Amino acid sequence: MYTNTSGEDTLVKSLATTIQKKLVNPTEEQFKQLDLKINSLSDNLNQTNLELRQEIDGLSEKILTIRKELNDLAALHKKTRLVAFIAITWTAINTYILLLR
């Protein structure tokens, strides 16, 4: 039966420490840096989305205002056409009456 010696235990602990220092610690640091970058990008994305939403809301309000103005203009156009029709009809009737005299 094989038993570990203290020299082998020391070697295993040394290798474990070296692996920890060379592989695990740098990876943890890289993870932390990537996590910070991701959080920063997420914050920037949220800020950009908020600004875009505000811009869209502003444009929506402008569109509603323009639609109202367009409806008002359409109503005025109908009135103008009616007045023009009445004026043309009145002129035609007066001209006809003058020609009959």
Textual characterization of the structure:
By secondary structure, this protein is mainly α. Helix content is 94%, strand content 0%. It has one helix at 6-100. The protein is rod-shaped and about 140 Å long. The mean pLDDT is 89.
Q: How much strand? A: under 5%
Morphology: rod-shaped
Identify low-pLDDT runs: none
Please give the largest β-sheet.
none
How many helices? The count is 1
Task: Determine the mean pLDDT.
Answer: 89
End-to-end Cα distance: 142 Å
**Class from helix and strand fractions:** mainly alpha
Radius of gyration: 42 Å
The succession of helices and strands, N to C, reads H
Observed structural traits:
101 residues; mainly alpha; 1 helix; rod-shaped
Short description:
It is built from one helix and no strands.
